[in-house]
Amino acid sequence: MSPSHSQTSQTPRDNRLYAAVWRWHFYAGLITAPFLLILAITGAIYLINDEINDLLHPDLRFAPTGNQVQAPGALLEAVQHAYPAATLNRIDMPTEPGRTAQIYISPAQAPDRRVFVDPGNAAVLGSYVYTSTLVGFSDVAHGSLLLGNTGDAIVELVACWAFVLVITGLYLWWPRKRTDQRHRFSPNLQQRGRKLWRELHRLTGLYSAVLILFLIITGLPWANLWGGQFLTPVSNALGMGYPTFLRHHGSDDSKTLVDTHGEAPWTLNAAPVPHGHHGASNISVNQVHQILVEQGVALGYRLSLPQEPGDIYSAYTYPAQPEGQQTFHIDAHNGTLIGKAGFDDYGAIAKIVEWGVALHMGNYFGRANQLLMLCPCLAIIILVVSGLKLWWKRRPQGSLGAPKKLAAGKKRNLAMITAILMLLFPLAGISFIIVLTVDMSWQAIRSQ
Fold it and tell me: Which residue, of 56, 143, 222, 409, has the greatest Cβ tally within 10 A?
């Protein structure tokens, strides 16, 4: 939300603060613009992932036999026959009648694939590598820019600075003179050229600010540092994360996590799993299915298969509304149900995060939720394009066109800003120190 050059402050102190906020808004926006554009576009695509997949892969998504569903053992057997050298990792039963089942496999010396099976006759319909699809590519790009942990850190950093951008943008929007009050909440359609672009930028930012902040806050729990190294361990230590009865199951010499391929509820990502008997797996997938049916879950569950002696079967549901989430741990040796948890067993923080994630992903209340979350995605695109346009129009030829050098600020103010950023967003705080050091060094060099 760019400031107006015609606006002047009533006091030098106000003017210095306004200039400082504008300078940081300018640099943060310019640096994060391309990343925000990527996140907005990929996020918008993933919001309608089911619709896109249905359109692009109808032969894999819909079952030709209709509503019939065989036991999962027959589906896994068909896939193993089609891919004899592959390891079968997980089966997702149809989410509703008429849908296919999905089996995750790891072929020998090849990328993991997702195989689609008609649950009515166990016919293998085809497969794909998830990241080679539009939705899969967008999913991975949205979370890590296809750069693994490094990309995850960049996304987290951009999200943190986007938060700063929104807050500073709202400050710059706030009218500084009574003459500015007239078009405080409405566009001034008499403006032309660059001023009209400023109106678009200003009002788009104003009316989308709350939703953009919501997207940032509800997305950060998935980040490696803020979510994985801070929120997750803190919430679990306080007994406000995963179900507390699972806490004693973790140990240094055992698997503590189920490989859910990044598609499980946030609460389960750091939840230990109970130990199974250290022996051969004597329980078939069909027997596990029957146990789940007795628990009231016949369709829509995702079942991770044991890979080594002592591993267990872990099944979970991931419906659109988190209140329906359920997790089951079943001993592969004797079929004992050794762990069961539902949404009511989650701690307060976990529940809040799950609600936020469901809304963030456009799942909670159907099409309206998708459209609501699409609004901030489109708003970010408009803000990036209009912001870059404003910068390009105002910058002098051959110059960056950054706001003018500021008067030296009080050290305690800089220390306060840094401390707040370090507390709320560690990566943003570290980057603030780096940028501040570079900026001060550059100004010192230019003044010589």
Answer: 222
